[in-house]
Structure prediction request, 84 residues.
Amino acid sequence: MVIYYGVKKKLKLVSDLGQMTCTNCGHEVRAALAKEGGYVHIFFIPVFPVLTGFKMVYCPNCGIMRKLSGEEFKEMKQNNPPIK
Prediction:
């Protein structure tokens, strides 16, 4: 019997930060607050979370992700509306 398993990383957008100027590409973009995480998959079905990765600000134009500390992330999350 063959069992397919693995771990897959995923980027979850948490809050909309509104219009910002990206520090990397210099464009005026609609940035987002994001978290990286991962799940163990068995037969391509996510079973349980295993990775609680970085918290970051994400630029949709160039794809750059700037890491944030836990305190910065918490403060930005409280001050901005969640993404639905």
